[in-house]
Amino acid sequence: MSCRSNEFLTAAAIGLMIYGLPSHTQADDPSAPKAIEGSGQPPKPDVPTVVKLSIHPALPPAAALEYPLLPRFVDQYPGNAATLYIKVATLMADRKEPQEYWDKIDRWREMPLAELPRGEIHDRLVGYTTILDMVRMASRREQCDWGPPVHETTDIFGILIPEIGHLRKMGSLLALKARLEIAEGHPAEALETLQTGYALARQTADCPFLVCSLVGVAIANLMDQQAETLIQSAKCPNLYWSLTALPNPPVELRPALALEADSLFLAFPELRGIEQAQHSPEEWDAMLVEFARRYIRYADWIDKKWSGVGAAAFMTGRATLLLPRAKDDLVAAGRARSDVDAMPVAQVILLDGVMIYKRTRDDLFKWFNVPYAQSREGFAALDNRLKNEIRDREIVPIASVLLPALSKVRTASVRSERRIDLLRVIEALRLYAAEHNGKLPAALDDVKEVPIPLDPVSGQPFGYKLSGATATLDAPPPTGERWDILGARYEITIAGK
User: Fold this and answer.
1) CA 339 to CA 347: how far, in whole Å?
2) At the N or C end, where does the chain have fewer CB atoms within 10 A?
3) How far apart are CA 390 and CA 475, in angstroms?
4) 237: which residues sit within 8 A by CB, 6+ positions away?
5) Contact residues for 415 (Cβ-Cβ < 8 A; gap 6+)
6) Cα→Cα distances 257→140, 209, 362, Å
C-alpha cells in the first residue's frame, strides 16, 4: 500500500473518531419534525410604504444643544448601569407577562396618536413605575460593565445573557411612554424618555456580543420611530443639532465585532499560535479529536446538518478528498513541501482550518470599516465565497459555520444611521420653513441654514422633489434590497397649508 493510501486511511480513521456513529438519526425517528414545504403564498410586493408627515416650522433653540438625546455628562453618576439592568430584568421576569401583553404594547406604540387608549396605557405604565425609574437611573450611570466571563471560560458560545431580551421589552415600554407623552402634548417629558431609551440602546450593546449589539440597534430604532412622531408636534423644538450630536449610528458595534472576530480562539485557546506549535503525531491526533468533539457541539447548535451519521460519513470523505489540497495550500502559504509532507494528518487539517478561518475572517471584517456604499460588493463577494468556494475547501467547516452574516449586521447598522440622517433632513426643512414664510424649499440645495447630510446608503444626496405644497423625501433601497428592509419615502407638508 502506498504512503498516500496510508494517509487516506489515517484521515478516514480520524474522521470516524471525531464524529462517531450515533445510535439513531432524525430520519429514523417517527416523532422527529418533518421538513415543511413552501406555503405557496405569493411574495410580499416590494413597494415603498409612504410615511406622510405634517410638520411645523421651527427654529433651533437659542442654545443649539439644549435638548440632548443622551444624558449630559453633568447628569451622570458613578456606578455600573449593568447591576441595575440585571435587577430590572429580574423584576420583569418575575412578572411573567404573557406574550399577548407585549404584543398589545407594540400595537399601541404604532397606533395613531388620536386613537391611543390613554387611560389604559397610563394604568399599564403606572404598574411599571419602579422599573421605569430604575432604567432611568441606570441610563445615567457613568459606565455599563456587563462582565461576561469571555476570558474565564472556553464555552464562549454558551455564555447566557437572559437580561438582554428583557431590555428589548423595556425599550418597547419606553417607546410607548414617549408616544403617550407626545399625544398628551408634553414634548419635554417625551425628550427625556427618548434620552433614556437611546442610552439604554447603547448600554445594551456594551455587552460585547453581536446579539446584544443588534438588540441595542432594535431599541434605538424604537426611539427613532417616536422621534419621528415627536417632530410633527407643534410644540416640539427643532432637533436638528440634537440629532446631529447623537452618535450615528447610535449603537457602537465594534466591541462586539472584535469579540466575534476572535471567538474561535476564545472557545478553542489551543488554536492560538498553532502555526508554531510542536507536538508528536499522537498529540496532534488527540488535539484534533478533542477540538472536533467540542466544535461539533457548536456547529450542531448553529446548523443541525453537522450532527448525525450523515455528518460522520461526510466529514470522513472530506478529509480523504481534501487533504492533498490542504497540503498544497500550506505550501502556497510559504511552508516547505518536505515539511508539509512530513506533518501528521491531524496537524495539516488543523493548520489548514485555522489558516482558512483567519483569511476569510479578515476578508469579511475589513469591509465593515468602509462606507456602506463601497462595502456592498465586497460583502456580496465574500458571502458568495462562504456559500461555495470556502465551504467546499474546508475539511472542518469552521469559517463557513462560525463566521457571522456580517453583511446583514452592516445593513442593520446603516439602516439606523440612515433613519437619523433622514430625521436631520426633516428638521432642516422645518428650519428652512421657519426662515421662509412657512414654505418648503424647491431643492435640498436651497437649504443654506444647516448642512444637509448625504444618504449613508448610497453616499449621494437624498432624493427630494417639491410638487405644489408637498415634498417627497426619498431614500430608495440599493439594488438587491427590499423597500421594507432598507428603503424609506416621506411625503411632507407644512401643517395648516
Assistant:
1) 11
2) N
3) 35
4) 58, 60, 61, 66, 67, 187
5) 221, 485, 486
6) 25, 8, 12
Kindly report which listed range (146-160, 265-279, 429-443) carries the lowest average pLDDT score.
146-160
Backbone angle region of 187, left / alpha / beta, with phi > 0 → left and psi within -120 to 50 → alpha = alpha
| Listed residue (191, 30, 174) closest to 106, CA to CA | 174
Per-residue pLDDT, 209: 87
Report how far residue 254's alpha carbon sits from residue 259's, in angstroms, rounded to the nearest whole number. Answer: 9
User: How many other CB atoms are found less than 10 A from the CB of residue 13?
Assistant: 14
| Of residues 270, 201, 221, the one with CA closest to residue 423 | 221
The pLDDT tens digits of the residues spanning 411-440 come to: 999 999 999 999 999 999 999 999 999 999
DSSP characters over 56-67: ---PPPSSTTSS
In this structure, which amino acid lies at residue 389?
E
Which has the closest alpha carbon to 140: 223, 191, 198?
198
CA distance 492 to 332: 60
Contact, 468 vs 450, CB < 8 A?
Answer: no
Q: How far apart are CA 246 and CA 70, in angstroms?
A: 7
Band the pLDDT of 164: cuts 50, 70, 90: confident
